[in-house]
Amino acid sequence: MLSLNQTPAHPVHGGRFDSPDGSFHYSYFGDDISVCIAETYCRSLPLDDNVPRILRRKKLDGRVLSQVQVTTEFPVALLHGRHLAAIGQDLWLTKCDPVDYPRTQQWAAAVVNGTEVRGIKYRARNDEDRFSVVMTIRADADPPVALADLMSVVRDPIPLDDATGLELVRSHLAVYNATLR
Q: What is the CA radius of gyration of the chain?
């Protein structure tokens, strides 16, 4: 089932472009499996050669990975390259550590609430060659819009906490010099 997160960002555990105040609903996507795993699970792992990058298996409990296909075109804000400069920003907005997410969430709110976009596309923090998209739909959208109006699930969700899912995650974490324990 496709759904958007309607919960305002948690001050410590929220994502880069979560809604800080509930004014928009959101869900994150990547252009391949590796970037989905990296953006979700590697974002808070250290980028220090002297510190191991270890993802605790417990983080995968109850989580699934779904493949979706966009079925309706919609506008997205581009937050990479020259598009960052156009809004007075630089790579910090998409590459900063999670400690700065309350500020990046304010930027997301300004972009979403100040335009008619349905998402924000940006280069993945852990992989400059890949893109992530946070889908955003304003809470006060009239008429109301559901994620299922814009995309559909094309493969059954993969549970990440069973043997097959754990091996899938482990293999993709290795690309980012991270491991699962």
A: 16
Tell me the three state secondary structure of residue 50: coil
Place of tokens 């100040």: 114
Q: How far apart are CA 150 and CA 57, in angstroms?
A: 32
Q: Report the alpha-carbon distance of residue 166 to residue 158 in Å, rounded.
A: 10
Is there a contact between 36 and 29 (Cβ–Cβ < 8 Å)? Answer: yes
pLDDT tens for 33-73 read 999 999 999 988 887 778 889 999 999 999 999 999 999 99
Q: What is the pTM of this model?
A: 0.90
Beta bridge partners of 54: 179
Question: CA-CA distance, 54 to 77, in Å (whole number)?
Answer: 33
Decide if 130 contacts 34 (C-beta within 8 A).
yes
Structural domain spans, the chain: 24-180
- Counting every residue written for the chain, the total comes to 181
